[in-house]
Amino acid sequence: MTATLLKHEFLRTRTLLGLLFGGGLAIVALSTLFALMKWPVLSELGVALGLLITFIMLPATQIALAVEYWRSSYRQQGYLTQSIPVKGSTIFWSKMLWTWLASLVAMAVTVISAAIFWTAFGPMVGLSGNPFTMLGETLDFVSQYASSGMIVGLLIAFVLQMLVWPVQYFFCASIGSEAPLNRLGIGGPIVTLIAFYLVTQVITTLFIMFMPIGLGLEGGSLAFVGFETNFLDAFAGNGNDDVMPLGFVPALAIIAAVCLWRTHYSWNHKVSLA
Fold first, then answer.
1. Preceding peptide of 85 cis, ω within 30°
2. Residues in CB range of 47: below 8 A, 6 or more apart
3. 8 Å CB contact between 225 and 215
4. 177 vs 193, 232, 263, CA distance in Å?
5. Which neighbouring-strand residues pair with 237?
6. Distances (CA, A) of 265 to 64, 121, 140, 236, 273
7. Reported pTM
8. How deeply is 166 buried, as exposed, middle or buried, from its count of CB atoms within 10 A (0-12, 13-18, 19+)?
9. pLDDT digit of tens for each residue in the chain (274 aa)?
């Protein structure tokens, strides 16, 4: 059944994703052309537009799918979705899995977009316009300070962190669609998102304060180091500039687990259509 639901999600969102990915790459390619031509105004516009599209590709995909999740689950389309003769949580996990898969594709498209745009942007900042050459030079530079294992670990951690965002969006959409918040329409998920953001900030701040461990240079190499901070510094992000705190990592992992559990529960026990 999960495979069938995934196929349905693909058919339902393929046009949206096709427009996002195909349109995004087309805009970046055109922006790169403008930048290469060095035309007045158009060249600067191409640089700005290329950078913007490249950086928003992933968040735009996740937010668009989150809106689709809300519309197909809790608005008029929700009556059809909720009538499917399977457990509610199965529908939720299928939607979540599809969004994760789409997010991975969006990351790949972002890399392709960045490679295309770099052919014009690289020479502008005095670097090689060959993205593969630049990637090799970057890896050579980073490998002077971090082992290959740490580099791979950081990349995996980054990808996992990017996959946390749709978990939070789906949680807010579901909780904001439960009674009585569902009476607010789209306002329910928005109010939930604002409250969730504030609570998350406090939780991550407490974790950073009570787990003062971060990544920093020690003996010329990237390593786990300790640092001192207080609540106000942690909340304002005014910690040691030479250390990247890691306390937010377990905080986000725990928050994501709670979000998944609570959304799973919502689909089985709290579904309320408006």
1. no
2. 31, 35, 120, 121, 124
3. yes
4. 12, 34, 11
5. none
6. 24, 48, 47, 34, 16
7. 0.87
8. buried
9. 778 888 889 999 999 999 999 999 999 999 988 888 877 777 888 888 889 999 999 999 999 999 999 998 888 776 677 777 788 889 999 999 999 999 999 999 999 999 998 888 888 877 777 888 888 888 887 777 777 888 888 899 899 999 999 999 999 999 998 888 888 888 999 999 999 999 999 999 888 888 888 777 766 667 677 766 655 555 555 555 577 788 888 999 999 999 999 999 998 886 655 5
**Which residue is listed with tokens 């082992």?**
147
Single-letter amino acid, residue 40: P
Cβ-proximal residues to 143 (8 Å cutoff; 6+ apart), any chain: 151
Closest-CA residue to 195 (of 179, 175, 209) = 175
175-214 burial, b at 16+ Cβ within 10 Å, e below that, comes to: bbbbeebbeeeeebbeebbeebeeebeeebbebbbebbeb
Which strand (E) or helix (H) includes residue 209? Answer: helix 187-210
Length of the chain: 274
Give the Cα separation of 1 and 213 in Å (integer).
44
Q: Which two tokens stand for residue 140?
A: 């050579």
Helix (H) or strand (E) segment spanning residue 221: strand 221-226
The gap from C-alpha 126 to its chain's centroid, in whole angstroms, comes to 30
